[in-house]
Design a protein that fits this description.
alpha/beta, 2-enoyl-CoA Hydratase, Chain A, domain 1, six-stranded mixed beta sheet, three-stranded mixed beta sheet, 9 strands, globular
Length: 257
């Protein structure tokens, strides 16, 4: 089955959702965000679905938010955009009682990093790498990255890689506990086996356990998402952000005054 930008496939109680904008490095636009949330809502209600896998088409997981979409239509409220898109998506993944596995098949950046971090388990392809991304265009972290990334790798590392915008390799992510496994030999087979194992587990206990982890580790997730939106509203109106986007589109180094 195919929607405008999400491929769905249900096999042996495992629903695979594939981000399908390969010509745009699977970057999120409003339609893909909406389609992913709709697919997750259907999965949550479907008794045949016991595990969800999120991955990207081709050799890229996702480049995050499609910047070109944000530059169309004049003035945009970044806070309102987050409230309509990524904030509910992140809360939806964390609130879903069924295991959600991120099959990170390639580069993963920006808002897509938040999506991957919100998932319960992350398996990376050896070619995968992770980029915080926001600082590269003079924005603050959003999509839960300000909370989920420090929870995964520690505050000092999270701030270092936000400031530097350097990529985190799959190997480094595994070493720091940011990903659970790397599919060194057969990425697809590892995804299938892990998802199958999760789908065969005790569904109700898994749902309760996820609620327990959310309460213990992420009780302030909704508040963090809301605060990110406030900060992003401020950052999005700055001259630095305008220069950062201009430099990104021109493929040059930004010149911040």
């Amino acid at each position: 089955m195919m929607t405008s930008s999400i491929l769905t496939s249900l096999e042996h109680s495992v629903l695979t959702l594939t981000l399908n904008r390969p010509s745009r490095a699977n970057a999120f636009d409003f339609d893909m965000n909406t389609a992913l949330r709709a697919a997750l809502e259907t999965a949550a209600q479907d008794s045949q679905t016991r595990c969800v896998v999120i991955t990207g088409a081709g050799k890229v997981f996702s480049a995050g938010q499609d910047i070109t979409e944000m530059r169309r239509g004049g003035e945009i409220s970044y806070r309102e955009h987050l409230e309509e898109t990524y904030n509910p998506l992140i809360l939806q993944i964390r609130g879903m009682g069924k295991p959600v596995l991120a099959a990170v098949n390639g580069p993963c950046a920006g808002a897509a990093l938040g999506v991957a971090l919100a998932c319960d388990v992350r398996i990376a392809h050896p070619r995968a790498f992770f980029v915080v991304g926001f600082g590269g265009i003079a924005l603050a972290p959003d999509s839960g990255v300000s909370l989920l990334l420090p929870a995964a790798i520690g505050l000092a590392r999270a701030q270092e890689y936000f400031y530097s915008n350097r990529p985190i390799s799959a190997w480094q992510a595994r070493r720091w506990g940011m990903v659970n496994q790397i599919g060194w030999w057969n990425f697809e087979a590892l995804i299938r086996q892990t998802a199958k194992t999760l789908s065969e587990g005790p569904r109700e206990a898994f749902a309760l356990g996820k609620r327990a982890f959310n309460q213990s580790i992420l009780p302030n997730l909704a508040a963090a998402l809301n605060f990110e939106g406030q900060l992003q509203e401020q950052a999005g109106k700055s001259a630095e952000h305008q220069e950062g986007v201009a430099a990104f589109l021109a493929k040059r180094k930004p010149r911040y005054e």
